[in-house]
Amino acid sequence: MTTVRSATTRCLSVLLIASLVAAGCSRTYIYGPEQMPDMTERTLKVRSLTSSHGPIESFEIERIGLRHLAQPGLLRAPTEAEYSALINQSPLDVYTIEIDVDASTVHWRDYGLGGVGIGMTAALVANLSDEGGLFREGNGMALLGSITVGFVGFLTGLIVGSLAAPDVIDTRFDEAYVPD
Fewer CB within 10 Å, N or C, the chain? Predict the structure, then answer.
């Protein structure tokens, strides 16, 4: 009875951690009126460094908000004309354009897979000792144990990566900006 309850508690804990990490995987990009976002109806295309030749990330758009010069404290949804101007990359008379995107694929790929690699490598290296290693029952248990430790590393990588990643990226200030 106790083992069933503890196994259920562990599964619910993993689901809670995964849902909290997935909730933290959103990102907001802020654009100015002179730099229009590169977007289609449902995706935003972003290059991590504007002067690099790296790949362009594609994010699914969750929300779009505009702040106008008359009321910079008020964030509102774009009208149909403003939305089509955004799609066509036509300049808008706004203070900022704020686009919330789902960055979960970046988090899972960059932070989760890195955590798996670190966890599985640590478990396999710990198993190489002369005294029988971390898992003494044999090669099958060593593999199962390293996969389990890799999964823990995956969750740890997601948690640490989600906490360390920026929530808001302000693209109004170019990295090559030099003040007068």
Answer: C
Cα separation, 32 vs 47, in Å, equals 16
Q: In which band, very low, low, confident or very high, does the pLDDT at 137 lie, cut at 50, 70 and 90?
A: low
Which pLDDT band holds residue 37 (cuts at 50, 70, 90)? confident
Element (H, E) at 7: helix 2-23
142: phi then psi, degrees, rounded to nearest 5 = -65, -40
Of residues 96 and 107, more confidently modeled: 96
Residue pointed to by tokens 């030749």: 53
How far is 46 from 20, CA to CA, in rounded Å?
25
- Burial class from Cβ neighbours inside 10 Å (0-12, 13-18, 19+) for residue 98 reads middle
> Do 80 and 156 meet the contact criterion of CB atoms below 8 Å apart?
no
User: Distance (Å, rounded) from C-alpha 28 to C-alpha 23?
Assistant: 13
> Which residues lie below 8 Å from residue 19, measured CB to CB, with a gap of 6+?
none
First-to-final CA distance of the chain: 72
Cα 163 to Cα 117: distance, rounded to the nearest angstrom:
19
Strand partners, 168: 28
Neighbours of 69 (CB within 10 A): 10
